[in-house]
């Protein structure tokens, strides 16, 4: 299978193309937020309490400066969405990097070494998977929130979320890599590498790992979506990003208390963006699974 084949399948699948285009637009929107956002929601000099809870520009009482309205702090909803999407993507991608580093390393070792090392690491993974990621995150973040003041928590919130979500989800990568290694380590190219005297470290990382990256690529896309959902849930519970440094989850939470008073736009638009982002990532993950998994291909090569 070549990249030309993958590209051909991509342009021939309208759902995958639509999901890819939506994801690209959201990533560009987040990356370019400091340059294209109408307002910097972190700059107090640009905020005015007199602008709070304004409806979208096309409704009565709206202001053309704020296309999607404003929140209770006078921040433009469109601007907070642009910045918040970037924070959500940063946490999602960062958490998956942590998951991948831990999972790939332990999965390689377990699959290649076998024996008691494999049994120990897989039982450790079973224990980890039996615990809810959300439950672990709630306990750790609640302790962290209680132990430090609000400013310290805000400074380290992104780092804490990345590490907690990443460490809690490593078994998914480890199990995926281990199963691939078990199928690869008995092949002739691995035997040849051993015969010429290469150390186990070089055999694992230089020869076996490159042949196990296809399932890792697929699971990474899906895990980014799951990490973003976990962060959004934690932020909605008040244990994720603080409201003055908004992610999509904290934006939804900050407007939830106003939704019944008529200020529905504060919650609705961040929620729509979050749903679209998760949907695009999951659709791309499903497409990649179908294309890159030889067992699921429909006779094309």
Automatic annotation (TrEMBL):
<keyword id="KW-1003">Cell membrane</keyword>
<dbReference type="GO" id="GO:0055085">
    <property type="term" value="P:transmembrane transport"/>
</dbReference>
<keyword id="KW-0472">Membrane</keyword>
<dbReference type="InterPro" id="IPR025966">
    <property type="entry name" value="OppC_N"/>
</dbReference>
<feature type="transmembrane region" description="Helical">
    <location>
        <begin position="15"/>
        <end position="37"/>
    </location>
</feature>
<feature type="transmembrane region" description="Helical">
    <location>
        <begin position="87"/>
        <end position="112"/>
    </location>
</feature>
<dbReference type="InterPro" id="IPR050366">
    <property type="entry name" value="BP-dependent_transpt_permease"/>
</dbReference>
<dbReference type="GO" id="GO:0005886">
    <property type="term" value="C:plasma membrane"/>
</dbReference>
<dbReference type="InterPro" id="IPR035906">
    <property type="entry name" value="MetI-like_sf"/>
</dbReference>
<feature type="transmembrane region" description="Helical">
    <location>
        <begin position="153"/>
        <end position="170"/>
    </location>
</feature>
<dbReference type="InterPro" id="IPR000515">
    <property type="entry name" value="MetI-like"/>
</dbReference>
<keyword id="KW-0813">Transport</keyword>
<feature type="transmembrane region" description="Helical">
    <location>
        <begin position="263"/>
        <end position="284"/>
    </location>
</feature>
<dbReference type="Pfam" id="PF00528">
    <property type="entry name" value="BPD_transp_1"/>
</dbReference>
<feature type="transmembrane region" description="Helical">
    <location>
        <begin position="124"/>
        <end position="147"/>
    </location>
</feature>
<dbReference type="Pfam" id="PF12911">
    <property type="entry name" value="OppC_N"/>
</dbReference>
<keyword id="KW-1133">Transmembrane helix</keyword>
<feature type="domain" description="ABC transmembrane type-1">
    <location>
        <begin position="85"/>
        <end position="285"/>
    </location>
</feature>
<keyword id="KW-0812">Transmembrane</keyword>
<comment type="similarity">
    <text>Belongs to the binding-protein-dependent transport system permease family.</text>
</comment>
<protein>
    <submittedName>
        <fullName>ABC transporter permease</fullName>
    </submittedName>
</protein>
């Amino acid at each position: 299978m070549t990249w030309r084949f993958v590209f051909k399948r991509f342009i021939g699948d309208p759902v995958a193309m639509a999901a890819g285009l939506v994801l690209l637009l959201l990533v560009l929107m987040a990356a370019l937020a400091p340059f294209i956002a109408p307002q910097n929601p972190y700059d107090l000099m640009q905020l005015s309490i007199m602008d709070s809870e304004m409806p979208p520009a096309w409704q009565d009482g709206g202001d053309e400066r704020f296309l999607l309205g404003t929140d209770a702090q006078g921040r433009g909803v469109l601007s907070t969405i642009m910045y918040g999407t970037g924070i959500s993507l940063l946490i999602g991608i960062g958490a998956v990097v942590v998951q991948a580093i831990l999972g790939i390393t332990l999965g390689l070792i377990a699959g290649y070494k076998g024996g008691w090392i494999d049994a120990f690491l897989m039982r450790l993974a079973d224990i980890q998977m039996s615990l809810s990621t959300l439950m672990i995150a709630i306990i750790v973040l609640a302790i962290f929130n209680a132990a430090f003041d609000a400013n310290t928590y805000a400074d380290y919130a992104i780092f804490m979320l990345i590490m907690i979500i990443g460490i809690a989800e490593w078994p998914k990568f480890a199990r995926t890599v281990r199963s691939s290694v078990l199928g690869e380590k008995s092949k002739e190219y691995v035997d040849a590498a051993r015969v010429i005297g290469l150390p186990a470290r070089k055999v694992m990382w230089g020869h076996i790992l490159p042949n196990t990256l296809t399932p890792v690529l697929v699971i990474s896309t899906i895990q980014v979506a799951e990490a973003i959902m976990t962060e959004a849930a934690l932020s909605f519970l008040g244990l994720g990003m603080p409201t003055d440094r908004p992610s999509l989850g904290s934006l939804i939470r900050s407007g939830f208390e106003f939704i019944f008073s008529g200020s529905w736009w504060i919650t609705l638009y961040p929620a729509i963006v979050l749903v679209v982002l998760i949907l695009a990532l999951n659709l791309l993950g499903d497409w990649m699974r179908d294309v890159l998994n030889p067992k699921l291909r429909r006779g094309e090569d």
